[in-house]
Structure formats: structure tokens, C-alpha cells
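Entry for the shared binder. Reason: the reviewer on the internal report wants the predicted structure included alongside the sequence.
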Amino acid sequence: MVSCSNAGREAVFNFLRSAVTYVNVHYLKAAHSSSAGAFAATHGLTDTQLEFHNLATDFANAEFAPHAAQWDEEKMFPEAALQKAAELGFAGLFVSEDAGGIGLGRQDGGVVIEALAAGCASTTAYLTIHNMCAWMIDTFGSAELKECTLPQLLTMEHFASYCLTEPNAGSDAASLATKASLDGDEYVLNGGKAFISGGGRSEVYVVMARTGADGPKGISCFVVPSGTAGLSFGKNERKLGWNSQPTATVSFDNVRVPIANRLGEEGDGFTMAMRGLDGGRLSIANCSIGAAYQCTKLARTYIKDRKQFGKPLASNQHLQFKLADMAAAIHTSRLHVRSAAAQLDAKQPTARAFVAMAKHVATDACFNVCNDALQMHGGYGYLKDYPIERFLRDARVHQILEGTNEVMRVITSRELLTSEE
């Protein structure tokens, strides 16, 4: 089993259960306007969502934004900042209250993620992956496995990684080749995973492996603790963006884990993986929205202050129209994501297609917004002294991971072609 300690566990549970009250008492501003401007990130939020938004914004401004450039430049994994985020319950957004989490729905949790991403999209993206792993353990794990794993994940004393992608099984996840063979009361894992966020640093790996025949029905899911014999990692990959989180291959060479570390039943793994990705896709879309929103605010400020030919750039109608298009793209993305989140929360049968549509619309549109914001800054946008280029690099990968946007279109078109409406 994953090692666990009784020390402080009840205190952790009690603290996280009271996270919403903690938000209201300690971190919210005294008053907020009930009528947000059309461009404001708070537009259309409920009172509860507004509280979470303001908490996450205040935290991101204090703990993420001032250090994001250094984390990117030095490829630092900001463990202390993530653990501070966990103190506010942000490591257990979707974990049930009974298990010590906040138990938010996808709509409410998305508000938090968007606000955090405006401070640092890369760090927030890792946090969403950690949240996905914690949610999967809470949803599908045994009581014993949850008790021994979740407390340390919810405080981010331990970090988690999601292990699905393989060198030869990316978009075609059902063809993964990592195997788990039952040997007595243990499974023996052999194979490898690629592009794993947190690889080599995390203490907990949620791993999809083949226990049966080819295809999705032969896949099962396991929790593999770091330090297990035969578990090894590649070098930290050199990447265009997402530099504040390590990315590495994860290899399994006769790695033994007890049956108790399996999530659910044999053959349930692919279904679990896809359910995890439904939420993960919305989270990544929200990261893109947060990045695009911040870039648009920076661009707006820049063109109002910067003068060319004796006039502020903001007096140029082309830039006015460009700024309007950027605001419209962000608003459209929010509507897509929040609509899909509502379907996912309601367990609608069409939710997966709407999630896929929202993910590809938001990540495509918001990357373009970041790019337009860089263009508005001219040569300054290309300099690392300004945050625009970092947001652009971090947002680019969102069109690839959690299912490429080409695959998102496949999911959406399949729903259209099979529907009778």
C-alpha cells in the first residue's frame, strides 16, 4: 500500500472541510460590486462563485504572478507555492467533503482555475492534473486506499501524476501497451509512459495499464507510489513552455503493486481515464481563458499608455477592433466551458461531446488571443521582460494535451453524426 501516517490526519481533514468558511472569513475583500463590467472575469458569477474567484485572484496575485517569470526561467517547480494553494483547499477542488476536499462542481471549480491561471498558467495546469488524480482516487478508490493517499495529496505534502500517454499511444489511448499481470496478490507492471507532468517528482502515480485483451475494455487503473522497486524516470524534458512543472518519461520494470492499489475493477481503467479527462479538459480550457484574459488586460493597458505618431495606440481603430475581438473570444470561450461544465455536473449523456467542443474552442481561441496581445506589444511582446510571451508559450500546449484538438473535433463530429436531432 501507499504509505500513510496518522499524524495530523484528522486536523487536515477538519481544516479542508472548513475551507469555504475559511474563504469567507480570512481572504475575501470587504465588498464587491454586484454589477461587473462586460469584460470582467466576474461577469455572470453567483455570489458563491464570486467568493471563490476573489480568493483565487488574491492568491494568484500574491503567490503566483510575482514569481512566475523566475519559475519559468529557472525551470523551478514551486512546491511551497503549491502547498500554500493546498492550504486553501485548491488541491482538492473536486474531492468530496467526506474525504476532506471542498467538493466543488465543475462550474465552481472552473472559476478558481481560471483565476489562478491568470497568475501562472503553467503552475495552475499542474495543479489541475494533481486535482484530477485526487478526484480519481476519491471516486474509484477503496476506503483504505483513500485514507492512506488523499490526506497527503490534499495538503500537497505529496504530489500526483496522471500516467496515460505512451510513446506509441497518444491520441489512440486505447492502444496503450503498458501491461499489468496478476501474480498472487500483486500486479506486476511493465512498460513506459511519456510526457508525464510531475514525472520523477511526484509521490503518487495514477497509471493506466493493460490487464486484458486489446482495446479499451482490457485496461485497468493503478496507484503506484514513488520509491517502488523497478519504477524509474527519464530526464526532465526541455520544453517550449510549462517550465514550472517537470515533465519526464515514467518506466515500469517489474514494478509490483498490491491488488489493493487498483482503482475499481479490472477493465474499468479506460472508462476512469476518460471520465478524468472530461474534467481535465475543462480545467485546461479554463487555464487558457485565464491566460488570455490576463494577456488582454495587459494589452489594453499597453495600447492606452503607448504613443505612436503623437497619439495613444488605443486611438487606432484597427487595435480597437482587435481588442473587441479578443474580448469576444474570451467571453465565447467562457460560455462554452461553463455550459459544458453544467452538463458534466448534471451527468448529461451529451456532456463528453460538449466538453470536447468547449476544450477545442477555448484553447484555440485563447491561444490566438495571447498571440494578438503579443502583437499589440510589438517588439516588447517578444521580450521576456514582459509576461505575454510566457503566457503564449504556456497556452500553446493546451491545444495538444488532454486530447488534441483534432481528437476533440472527432468526438464532437461523432456525436453529430449519431444524433437524430
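Summary line for the report: The domain at 275-418 is CATH 1.20.140.10 (Butyryl-CoA Dehydrogenase, subunit A; domain 3).
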